[in-house]
């Protein structure tokens, strides 16, 4: 447990560094990523694909992975993360890009066994916006973002699902390319008897893409695991850091910190992807479709005993989570101060 927390904290520091770099590079970074991913896809379909066995099976599988990869990246970049000053979004039932729900209902998910209660609202001291729980002010966008995770581009309530799925499909694609491309990369390097290269992609480009795929499989694999770990514990990247502080505060008082959004690993993941009971069918995870989150960002599912933790909390100073009093909860300003200290 201590080990995974430490790893989580290391990634937090890495992600902050990444935020600063990608925030500055912005559009160039996105364009560069699109070019590299497209090159990878072209390399795979030109060089590796024709040599795969069971083409009737591997063909559709590869097309599906490539489509998911490109579409989820497109969604991460184009779907705005969600802001507290805009009205709740409804799914677009006309568009073929949107998944269909089994039972048509409201945008938010109010399943009978799920306790979803209104969020506590504070005011952002940077932009003056009303700020429901889990909203944080993004320093790069200079705006409050619902269920803010990090900026890379800005990831929040409406695109976090696509962000994680994009990473998962990128890892799957890189692992597939690395595993099936071995004979081709040896051939490109002149390490086999067959020196011919009957493909459109130049040998050097294939070798470079192959190396990149191996590196990305490891790096993005770790990042994806880190995000899935957070999602399965019901916490965002920002909250992962805050909760560490709360744990220490509660421990000093002889209490135990309880994350009120944590409904158990399986339920947390179901809610994160909005699948399972009351949500969308599980197979939607395999398709490049858009799905609304289970909530509009102004209400949250809470574990038993914390139903009144949000806006309806009593006057006894009880906070949103167990072991933390109201007023002890960290704000974005605290985060900044800590960030400044770390930089000095
Ligand atoms: Zn703000
Ligand atoms: Zn941002």
UniProtKB/TrEMBL annotation:
EC number: 2.3.1.225
Record-given protein name: Palmitoyltransferase
Single GO cellular component term: membrane
Entry's Gene Ontology molecular function annotations: protein-cysteine S-palmitoyltransferase activity
Entry comment, domain topic: The DHHC domain is required for palmitoyltransferase activity.
Topology class, membrane: Multi-pass membrane protein
Chain positions covered by the region annotation Disordered: 310-344
Species the sequence originates in: Mycena rosella
Major localization class: membrane
Cellular localization per UniProt: Membrane
This protein's record includes keyword GTP-binding: no
Biased composition (Gly residues): 311-322
Family of the protein in this entry: Belongs to the DHHC palmitoyltransferase family.
Annotated transmembrane regions: 28-49, 56-75, 163-186, 207-229
Catalytic reaction equation(s): L-cysteinyl-[protein] + hexadecanoyl-CoA = S-hexadecanoyl-L-cysteinyl-[protein] + CoA
Domain annotation Palmitoyltransferase DHHC: ranges: 123-239
Family annotation (PANTHER family): PALMITOYLTRANSFERASE ZDHHC16
Compositionally biased intervals (Acidic residues): 330-344
Keywords: Acyltransferase, Lipoprotein, Membrane, Palmitate, Transferase, Transmembrane, Transmembrane helix
């Amino acid at each position: 447990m201590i080990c995974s927390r430490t790893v989580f904290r290391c990634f937090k520091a890495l992600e902050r560094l990444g935020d600063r770099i990608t925030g500055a590079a912005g559009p160039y970074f996105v364009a560069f990523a699109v070019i590299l991913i497209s090159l990878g896809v072209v390399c795979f379909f030109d060089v590796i694909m024709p040599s795969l066995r069971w083409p009737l099976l591997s063909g559709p599988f590869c097309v599906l992975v490539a489509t998911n990869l490109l579409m989820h990246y497109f969604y991460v970049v184009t779907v705005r993360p969600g802001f507290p000053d805009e009205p709740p979004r409804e799914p677009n039932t006309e568009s073929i890009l949107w998944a269909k729900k089994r039972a048509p209902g409201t945008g938010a998910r109010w399943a009978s066994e799920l306790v979803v209660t209104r969020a506590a609202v504070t005011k952002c001291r940077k932009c003056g916006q009303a700020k429901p729980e889990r909203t944080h002010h993004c320093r790069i966008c200079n705006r409050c973002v619902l269920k803010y995770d990090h900026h890379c581009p800005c990831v929040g309530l409406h695109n976090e699902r696509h962000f994680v799925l994009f990473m998962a499909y990128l890892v799957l694609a890189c692992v597939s390319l690395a595993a099936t491309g071995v004979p081709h990369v040896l051939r490109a390097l002149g390490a086999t008897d067959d020196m011919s290269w009957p493909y459109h992609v130049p040998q050097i480009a294939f070798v470079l893409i192959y190396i990149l795929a191996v590196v990305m499989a490891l790096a993005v694999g770790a990042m994806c695991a880190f995000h899935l770990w957070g999602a399965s514990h019901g916490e965002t990247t920002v909250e992962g850091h805050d909760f560490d502080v709360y744990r220490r505060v509660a421990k000093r008082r002889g209490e135990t910190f309880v994350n009120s959004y944590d409904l158990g690993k399986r339920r947390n993941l179901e809610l994160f992807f909005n699948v399972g009971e009351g949500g969308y069918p599980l197979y939607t995870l395999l398709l490049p479709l858009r799905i609304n989150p289970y909530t509009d960002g102004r209400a949250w599912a809470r574990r038993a005993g914390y139903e009144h933790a949000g806006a309806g909390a009593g006057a006894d100073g009880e906070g949103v989570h167990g072991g933390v009093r109201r007023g002890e909860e960290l704000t974005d300003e605290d985060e900044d101060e800590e960030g400044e200290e770390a930089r000095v």
